[in-house]
Queue: 2 jobs
Job 1
Amino acid sequence: MARVGVMGGTFDPVHYGHLVTAEEARVQFTLEHVFFVPNRYPPHKALDQVTDPEHRYTMTQRAVQTNERFSVSRIEIDRPGPSFTIDTLEALRKEYRAQDLFYITGADAILQIVRGEWERSAELLTLCQFIAASRPGFPLEVHDLRKYNVTGRPLDNLHVMEIPALAISSTDIRRRVAEGRPIRYLLPDEVAEHIAEQGLYRRSVRSLE
Ligand code: ATP
Ligand code: MG
């Protein structure tokens, strides 16, 4: 059976940090395909605090179009209400076995999950393999993962992955656009074009943190 990766996120907007992480996971873990899954809106955030899901979906599609092993899934965008990763992984588990399904995250996200901050975190951690990438500003220590682990069992299905450091975040990109500073080379040109054409991020600076 195929081994596949799932890269979830708000992607507001998608950037090279996401793409490098997904590509490195694909190669290091011999994944046949990586699905990018933009959320409809993140839990605890109102719909109006993030950019319209269709814009985020289009930008993510444009970003992955040159990689035949990447595609974008509408599974969360088409599901009403806030997007819980556990619902998505439960749906995917109908098609893939736990050992063939890899949820890819940055260091900040995996620490939240391991600490129990996501919906049904402990159960989520049993559904598939997890790949956690080191992310500048969010040091990832295996020691911390063990210390904060809420599941009460060893996390044998959690794999830590080193990636070339990329201190890029969507928050910084939104801020740069609002301030008229450059975003070129932080994300694919096609995504920057969509932002310019649609006039996204010009006014408000929103942080999802
Ligand atoms: P924001 O600043 O709005 O929170 P973000 O840059 O963190 O945006 P998200 O859509 O929140 O992007 O992140 C989706 C996933 O990608 C998360 O698992 C996050 O940890 C990971 N990620 C984001 N940026 C990077 C990066 N530069 N390197 C590695 N992983 C990253
Ligand atoms: Mg984030």
Job 2
Amino acid sequence: MKLILLGAPGAGKGTQATRIAAKYNIVHISTGDIFRANIKGGTEIGKLAKSYIDAGKLVPDEVTCDIVKDRLNWDDVKGGYLLDGFPRSLFQAEELSKFADIDLCLNLEVDPALIMDRICGRRVCACGESYHVSTLGGKTTCAKCGKELYTREDDNPETVKARLDTYNKMTAPLIDFYAAKNKLATVVCGTKTPDEVFEAVCRVLDK
Ligand code: AP5
Ligand code: MG
């Protein structure tokens, strides 16, 4: 299975991607995570990406496409993969179609009014787990690995506004792009919990 997970910032892409990858035994590839690992490692890509991520803008298309193209050549993706946060522009979608044959684009539709609280309340762990302060009961460490949780640098109100703006201008048109190819499925998240959203996602993927 070769999937794209599409959705606004805070739609729950990462939350669902972890579950989907585990259940369907496919590789989770998040361009956001790749950029953050490069920033942490002080690489040239990381230095370039940081200025765009801090401003809530897209990292240049060519750089991002090269990273994904290279990643999809690794052996571990032969059994399938899930692209979380890629493509994010029509240019990226056109490029992707030149080097990959995607089965489905799964669009997570979230109420925009929920996004700011979800993102600004998010706490993440270096192991990849993500939480919301409202469910942590004051705990500051990861339930899975015990490491200290932290807040992503781009999870502040000003950057979130810019990320939403970028999403609406650059990424939302991909909904029509994949619908026109008969490759779009939308899951409306409403006020469903992550487990309830996952059940709806599985119903789509099991078809
Ligand atoms: P990226 O890391 O992809 O960030 P994003 O798209 O802004 O999305 P988030 O990771 O913030 O949200 P999510 O949808 O994963 O939600 P999550 O599951 O964590 O990208 C970061 C930056 O990198 C971009 O701004 C850009 O600069 C750059 N970049 C990345 N890809 C790029 C590309 N292709 N091209 C160019 N630049 C690129 O959930 C959020 C919160 O909500 C959590 O607290 C979670 O616990 C909670 N939550 C989740 N589901 C539910 C639910 N059902 N009910 C209640 N709470 C929930
Ligand atoms: Mg994410």
